[in-house]
Each structure stands twice: as C-alpha cells, then as structure tokens.
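Morning - zinc ion inputs below, output right after.
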Amino acid sequence: MIQVRRPISCCLTSHLRDSCPSRALWRERLCERDREAKPPRREPKFNKHHRRVPTAPRASVESVAAIAQVEPLTSARALRGPFDYLLPEEMRARVGVGSMLLVPFGRRELLGVVVGLSDASAVAAERLLAPRQTIEADLPQDLVELAGWIALEYCSTPARALSLVLPPGAGAGMRGLEQLVAELTAAGREACSSGVRLTALQREVLERLAPAGATPAAQTGAGHGTLRRLEQRGLVRLSRRARARAPAQVVVGARREGAIELGADQRAALARVEAAIERRGFEQLLLHGVTGSGKTEVYLRAAAAALAQGRGVIVLVPEIGLTPQTVSRFVERFGNTVAVAHSRLSAGERYDEWMRLRRAEARICVGPRSAVFAPIERLGLIVVDEEHDPSYKHEGDPRYDARHLAARRAEVAGAVLLAGSATPRPESFARLARLTLPARVDGGRLPAVEVLDMCGVHGALHEQTAAALGELRRERGKAIVLLNRRGWSNFLSCRSCGKVWGCPECDVALVLHRAEGAISCHHCGHRRRAPASCDECGSRSVARHGFGTERLEHELETALGGSDYPIFRLDADVASAKGRAAAVLARFERADAGVLIGTQMVAKGHDFDGVALGVVLDADATLRFPDFRAEERTFALVAQLAGRAGRGGSHGRVLVQTLAPGARSIRFAAEHDSEGFLAGELERRRALRYPPYGELIRIVCSSESAELALRAARELRGRLELPADAALLGPAPLFRLRGRERVQLVVKASERLEAVAAVGEAVARPLHRDVSVSVDVDPQ
Ligand code: ADP
Ligand code: ZN
Ligand code: ZN
C-alpha cells in the first residue's frame, strides 16, 4: 500500500474507493466538451488587456462559487485529485478555472491548478482548508482541458499533464518568477575607471554593468558569489525583482512580404489553406512538398492570413538549434508579434515570452514540441514543420506526441492544422487532405542519386565516394556526409579471448570515443577509460570494430583536409554545449568550401546554397532496428539528406552507400519517389494492422529482477479487459536498460480510446512495488 500524508481537507478516502476517480471526472467533463465543441463556435468576448479568460460557469455574480477543485502538482501516480479547497471571500472573485494557487497539502505546500469550481463539497465545510495564496499567472481554460485530455489519452495523471502546460519556471513554487538584479553603485562606477584592485572577472562584470543599468544576474557573466563579494565592497547593488515584462527583441517590420512572388503550386496550396482558415472550422492539411519547394513561404502567408482574421498561430519546428532559419524568417516577417520558445532563453525570458502570448501582445509562437502548449487564444492555425521528425514525440511521462496534441488543439479551437514535409509520415499521408508542391522553387532539379553496394568493400568509403570527394576538394566544392553513428568505433573486442566490452547496466556494447580516451554506453551514459589490455586474459591486443563520426572525421581530415579545406563535424557529442550545433552549421554555411559530416542532425531542414555532393554512409543501419517504422525512418533520412544537395541553382549529386541496395526504402528514396514509397508502406501497414490502420500501445514492466518484471507483465496481461477485436502481444523480453530488466506487452487495437481506457484501468492499480510500469500510446 502506498503511504500518503493525508491533507485534512481532502476527500482522499472517496478517491481510494473508486479505482480512478479523476479519470472518471475528466472523462465526463471532456465528453461534455466534445459534445459542445461542434462548430459553429461561440466567439469568446475578447479584450486585449484582460488578464483572465472566461472562467467556469457561475450561477451569478452574487453567488460566486466558494469551493475550488484543485489538482495539486505532484508526480505521484497514486495520489489523484482534484481536492476541494474553501476559497476565502476575498479570493472568490479572482479565482477561476486555470488559476494557480499555493495550497496546504499534508505537511507541505504545493502549487495547484484550479480545474473546477463548485458551490458544495462532499467534505464538511469545517474540514476544508483554504489556499494560502493566489499566483498572478493563470492558465487559459482550454489548456487546463487539454491537460485533462492528455492524462487520459496517454494513461498519465492530470497533475503530470498539467505540469506540461504551466508557464515556464512555474513548477518550483513560482519562485522562478523573481530574479536577482545587479546594478552599479556610484563607487562601482568610479571603480571602473580608477585603478581599484579587482580580479579580471570582477572588472569584466563592472564593465559589463556600466552601460547596461540594472541587469539580471544571469546576464552578468558572473556567479552569485562574485556578485555578493562586489556587493560587500559597495560596488554593486543587488535586489530581487519581478522579471522584466518586455524582453529585448528587435522589432522588424514586414520585410520581404511581396518581394517573393509565389509560384503556381504555392499559390494553389495557400489558397486552400486560406479558405480553410476563413471557414473557421477544424481542418487538417498536409503540405507535401519536395525539399526546397518553398513550404516555409506558404506557412508565412498562411500565418499572415490567420492574423488578419484576428486569430493566433502556433508554429512547431523540430529543434530550434538545428533549424534556426525557420524561426528567423518568422521573426523577420512578423517582428514582435512572434514569441519564440527557445531552450536557449533563460527561464525568466521564457516566462516573459509566455506572458506576452498570454496577454495577446504576441500572437504567433514558434518553438519545438512544447510550443504546442503556447497560451494563445482564438487559435486559427497550427503549423507543424517537418512533420516526420521524431523529436515531436516526448519521451518522459506523459509520452505525448506534439502532432497529436496539435490536432486536438486545432479541433477544439476550430483551427487549421497544416503539417508539412518532403517525407510525410504514412499516417499523415493517409489521413490528411493533401496539398502538393512537386518542384523546387529555383527550378532546380532534385539531385541524381546513385546507390553504391558495399558488399565486399573494406573501409568506410566506396571507391566512387572517395573519388567524388577528391574531385570536390580539387574544385573547392561543399559536401555533406551523413553517418548516423557517433564515436570512433562501435565496439571493442579482445583478439585472444573474444571478450567484448559491454555496459554493466545495459545489454549493449560500449562505444569508443577516442579523443576522450573513453568507452561509453549510448543508452545510459555509463563511461569508463578505454582499456589498453584485456581485463579477462591480459592480452594487449584489443580490436576496434566499425566506425562512427569521430573516426570518419579523422579519416577525411587525413584524406582531404588541410588548412584550406575544412572538415566540420556535427553530432550529439559536439552539440552537447548549448549553441554549438548552430555555430557549426553557421561556420559550414559561411565557408566557401569544405565537408560537413555528422549524424541525422545534418539532414534536418537546412537551406544551404551550393552543396554539390551529399553522401549517406551505411544507409541501411536504421533498417536493422527491429521496428515497424524502420523503413520510414530510412526513407526519410536518405531523402532528407538528398534534399540538402543542389540547392541555390548548383548541380547536386548524392551517393548512398549500403549493404542493402535493393531495400524498398533506399530504392524509392534514390528516385525521389515518396508517393511510391508511401503507397507501398501503407499497403504493408494495412496488412499488419499497424498505424494508421490500427492503434499500438506499448506497456513496459521493468525491475531489477527479470522474474518480477515478467510476473508483473503476466499479471497485467490477465487484468487487461480489451475490446474483442484487439490483440495482445507478449510478454516479450527487451534488452536490459539502466540496470533494469524489461518485459513488454503490446496492444494492437482498432479503437484508440477504448484500448487506452482499458490499459489505463489496468495500470492504475498497483503492481509489485519493485516493478515500475510505463505506458506508451502510439510508440515511435
Ligand atoms: P522548403 O521548406 O520547402 O524546403 P523553403 O521554404 O526553405 O523550402 O524555400 C527555399 C528557398 O526558396 C528559401 O530561401 C525561400 O526564401 C525561397 N523561396 C520560396 N518561395 C519562393 C518563390 N516563390 N520564389 C523565389 N524564391 C522562393
Ligand atoms: Zn582477452
Ligand atoms: Zn548502459
């Protein structure tokens, strides 16, 4: 039994009786919403200065509801609200659905979100507690509802789902909303110009503060210790302030609008999107355009159309660090109307951007998957750029898919969902209405692709690849080389006894990273020094197998490099520091010649001019994953890399090295035939009842003991009451990960909601305490 400290006010006992009360409550509320939510929609009264959205229905002004139903934000799965709190008189007018409160909870104080209001409670009034404090920021009601829906849809809890939609920095008791600000004193100003003894860092900080005035501590380049010491010497004044309201942002007016004349295909696509926006009903469109066909230009005009209707826009992009161009084009076009949800912003700056949206000072939000939670009212358009990108799936609980959430938000808001890609997912291709951009805007042809059979070839490069790279170096051209594997070599083995160095926590081999002198696990991060000899038999003969980006960089440097022919590398090792990925990409773009090598990061939507050669090494590596999406991934990777070559009028050529030259995904990618590939892929999926022809739910039981994990999976299997046409696969063992043995069950069903509900019921009841369960609806 799970021990919980019981808040006096809560009706916890009633929650324990029902297996999952909040589930029931949310389901009921959402069904109601779904019934109501059919267009034509009521337009909520809108006032740009108002601070609160229309709240839950109230009887009348005189009888303002006294009970707030609060979902406390705790990650505990077993503890589910909402819990009732009694609102003191002076809070009643200010509190509505979406308000955030600090509430007493057991012996703690937790941040909670009001999910409902009521005049009565099942708990006796004298036992109800009052919230301690209200918090200035509040959530729009539609985000509160979205959270409830997420909790159900992904078998999670309302509290966990609500933490996704909170303003940035709100989790930790809203302390994040204040910041330390530093300012020079008169003495400090003097110290800058006089010869007062200062360390180099101290002098630097003072000089930075001198022209700036009051500056957030985080921007001074110094830690709090340094600032405190300067304060003690009377040179700096420190204070806590509410975060600045208007973040520094360059205002750029409408630029280039009109400078680009749309092509006929772009015009036709845009007309269709605009008509949908004008109709103000939910619609899902797929912009299927080859790489370089001008999809972004269509997004920009569609966004302008939505704004002109007084509606807001969300633009989802895969990873801002890797695709800064899309963001800057939106900022260029719309200036301060754009809020950017960028992970490189400080928590305070992200909060400021959130508030600009909340107050409707900004009406467009551009950002990665979490931007789907942007507090935008009267949404008119949600764009999902590069909709095939796996980064839209969130890996922590709730394991949401931003694309699925985008569709839900658009549906509720009566907005248009516009997903775009050169290599759309089979699901989107089958389900969404299609708009096609079949040609590149510059009239350029897609590059010719040659598939090179690597059977019997030793070394990393086929002779044709080596020759092409050599020629490119002589002509001082640019190339991108994709190898989706980082490190030096894949694994080490002992030549005498055959030992392979594996991870002690996971059942995988350790990868050599030569520059660091370490071998490391790419699943759990375990790392140790690279061995010079075998620790089993003492042999000094250790063999290195395979190659990754680090070794490839070294080999290309030896073969081609020189001071005047740079080799750039981009992978997760290089990009571990913030901003490094963007810096490498910018250097490659500026360089007049050179080679960019790297993992899938180099195949994202970059728009570089003048890349003459694209190379994919070991193209079938992704095919070797035992996953029904392996084909789709491989196709997208090869086609996307090919899309980077030959832009801006230059001729492009692409070489694809593979051990499986006949594989469907590779053949179709080589012919730039995504429609052909998708048609075949959909046929295969229909036969196997994979998405979009069926729903998959993956349940993983993990434990330190293989036996316990298996037993738990069997027990869950027994509990699951699935719809008649659903299939249940497993229990099947997975490889050990982070010291935990794992066993998986997979549900295949035709009705998503029913199956999710059945799984939700089954996992809501506790299993063995040494077993944890994770549920992944629509796993990627
Ligand atoms: P995609 O997103 O489809 O790969 P982009 O939108 O990045 O393509 O467009 C590639 C380039 O073509 C961009 O530099 C863009 O400004 C330019 N472009 C887009 N539409 C047109 C057009 N109609 N005429 C000329 N250039 C265009
Ligand atoms: Zn050995
Ligand atoms: Zn590991």
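Note: The first strand starts at residue 67 and ends at 72.

O.
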